[in-house]
Protein: Thiamine-phosphate synthase
Organism: Pedosphaera parvula
Amino acid sequence: MKSLSDCRLYTFVDTAYLHGRKPEVVAQQLCDGGSDIIQLRAKNSAENEVRRMAEAILPITRRAGVPLVINDFLSVAIEVGAEVCHLGQEDFFDGGYTHVSQLKDGKSNVEIGLSTHAPAQAERAIAAGPGYIAIGPIYATGTKPTAKPVTLDYVRWAAANVKIPWFAIGGINLTNLDQVLAAGAQRICVVSAILNAPDIAKACGEFKARIT
Ligand code: 3NM
């Protein structure tokens, strides 16, 4: 199983972009293309549906040695034995937590990833002990249409200041990828530019070849 620091290309099984495909089929294509880590993101699904999808995907990611991240649903991540749970600022800090150990309650070794949208949020998140942080959205994106872009300034700040694994996210595609890398990112999250591509595995391979 890859460690978080080994991961460079972070991709998604996002139910908003399945286009009729089964989640586990998409997961296999992401693995075949060289994704290092995969998140199940199901913003409008009930917990039991997320659990069902996670159980279908997990054997595929395990076989590939790719950590599976469950977005939002910590209970599902722990129950199915996913390697990571990703939480937003609201879920974590507005939920009253200050350290990831409070979430796990000694019962699980699931890693936690946290979203951040500004340097002050990154500093507070890092102090909470996550396995990684995400920084974004770098560019405007239809995947999160209401979020305000943080620009490459935040990437440059992260490159100079963040010592744990961090992933740039938001509106990244093959056209702007080089700008994000030049600003200092070594790890990239991509949702729509891969899931909307005609060949998911090929699209992953194109990103991967330029990141590593
Ligand atoms: N989180 P795409 S931006 C899921 O800034 C998500 O925390 C963001 O999708 C954040 O690659 C984002 O299609 C959307 O732009 C990423």
Observations:
- Residues 4-211 form a domain with the TIM Barrel fold (CATH 3.20.20.70).
- The longest strand covers residues 9-14.
- Residues 47-64 form the longest helix (18 residues).
